[in-house]
TrEMBL record:
Pfam families in the cross-refs: Phosphonate-bd (PF12974)
Name the UniProt record assigns to this protein: Phosphonate transport system substrate-binding protein
Source domain of life: Bacteria
Classification lineage: Bacteria, Pseudomonadati, Myxococcota, Myxococcia, Myxococcales
Gene3D superfamilies from the UniProt entry: Periplasmic binding protein-like II (3.40.190.10)
Length: 274
């Protein structure tokens, strides 16, 4: 798909969000982010929630979005096409994360007992919600396409986890810090479903690590806007409003500069999941 430079006649700044934490939740908070960025950048800001990870990537490549909060594999795809990722999220002091494969509490599932089960994933481009767990299962000698009775994509972590709780699926996966143990606040289960939700699930396995989500910027975006956005995002933790945005929208404690081509290694994960 050819890259398109955003129109010089458009006066608004467009920021895209993924649907992974639930579209309704993201839309509720998009207005808060838009207002904050508008004051910081001195431009009209529009914040939208993409219907899928693929749409998020296409919006950025086509110029429909000037920047986006993007999952790692989308960042890797963007980097491969010459798009710069300016910052990445930091969670609990760490710039990487992994995935936890989970089932309902009491189900007693293990990797060896997943044959014939139904899996609920987030999105085919979701690192913690599909790519990492799929690559992990294959490394354990379990081919998901043959081992699972069915696999379906819910579009969000909430949807995948609720599918397990509702009995529509037996297994799902969710993001978690590298040092996490168990399913308390240290995993994404409680970030997504709220305090105490970890008790409703059991841990099956942890996967390898991947870099945290990042913010790629569109090709052709004015350097002064790129610099202003980078400064604004790295300064979010300096105000109560910014801290709330970090928690509610980015599930992060702060942003840090993203290393150039820092997502390249994810292609190995993506290939292993195919």
């Amino acid at each position: 798909m050819p890259l398109q430079v955003p129109s010089a006649t458009r006066h608004s700044f467009r920021f895209g969000l993924p649907p992974s934490l639930g579209s309704e939740t993201a839309r509720e908070r998009a207005d808060r982010l838009a207002a904050f960025l508008q004051r910081a950048l001195g431009k009209l800001v529009e914040v939208s929630v993409a219907s899928s990870y693929e749409t998020l990537a296409k919006d950025l490549l086509s110029g429909r979005a000037d920047a986006a909060w993007a999952p790692p594999f989308v960042c890797a795809r963007m980097e491969a096409m010459g798009v710069r990722v300016v910052v990445r999220g930091v969670r609990r002091g760490m710039s990487s994360y992994r995935s936890a494969l989970v089932c309902r509490s009491g189900a007693g599932l293990s990797v060896d007992r997943l044959k014939g089960a139904t899996a609920a994933w987030v999105d085919r481009d979701s690192v913690a919600g599909f790519l990492l767990p799929t690559a992990y299962l294959k490394a354990q000698g379990l081919e998901p396409a043959r081992a699972f009775f069915a696999q379906h994509f819910t579009g969000s972590y909430r949807g995948a986890l609720e599918s397990v709780l509702d009995g529509k699926a037996d297994v799902a996966s969710v993001f978690c810090p590298p040092a996490s143990t168990g399913l308390t606040y240290t995993t994404g289960v409680e970030d997504v479903l709220g305090a105490g939700a970890g008790r409703r699930f059991e841990l099956i396995a942890y996967t390898d690590e991947a870099p945290n989500d990042g913010v790629p910027v569109a090709m052709g975006l004015q350097p002064q806007l790129v610099a202003a956005l980078e400064t604004t995002l790295q300064g979010l933790q300096s105000s109560p409003e910014g801290v709330a945005l970090l928690k509610d929208i980015f599930n992060a404690e702060r942003f840090e500069p993203a290393p150039r081509m820092g997502y390249r290694a994810l292609y190995r994960v993506a290939l292993a999941s195919l």
